Amino acid sequence: MTAQTDTQAPDPVSSDETRRVKLAPSILSCDFTRLGEEMQAIAGADWAHVDVMDGAFVPNISFGMPILAAARRASNLPLDVHLMIERPERYLKDFAAAGADSITVHVESTPHIHRAVQQIRELGKRAGVTLNPGTPLEAVRPLLADVDVVLVMSVNPGFGGQKFIPASLDRIRTLRRWLDEAGSGAELQVDGGVSPTNARAVVSAGATVLVAGSAVFGKDGAGAGLERLREALK
Ligand code: DX5
Ligand code: ZN
To answer: Most buried among 62, 69, 138, 173, by the most CB within 10 A?
Structure first.
């Protein structure tokens, strides 16, 4: 790259890019005694992220269809379901019926990841694929043409409130390049440890959807948490 090109290069987080970025609060960190109010508090977000954990694929159990259905009744936001469960194809229909708008499955969770992605699309939902921080990116490469969302896990899945793994930034950049080279319009989502401190770097690396749990559902309420994230992206 020439020096001239450098000086002409736009700010990596241009205002256009900032407008495009979607925020997806993870309800795993919300107060479940007030799920309806919490869903209202994030009404200004773009998607609501719903983390389903089975205690087998990840070392934690969260919740399943009944909570998803309750969130559906309480909100008009698109519900973005992240399945951290073994053999997710067993339950895709149920999560679709309970109100999911998009369903994301892990490459490590089934030997038939491509079939799972096809099934999600056949159900008329946005299909997402994701991988753990220790899984080589090549594992998702054959799927890029057939998904609507690629999710980069920036923590080891299982718990909210963990620290962002810095090496995730390079993984986001690589996936950005692969998606662009393929002319794919899939969303590039990032999940785990996203906060006002690193949100801008994550978007500069190429993310289009930020998931945030503990950074949104803080002591001063989800509205304020969302606002802090938006400010950080300005
Ligand atoms: C982790 C989940 C995340 C989690 C994010 O297994 O997939 O969606 O809720 O929480 P924070 O933003 O607190 O890292
Ligand atoms: Zn998640």
So the answer is: 62
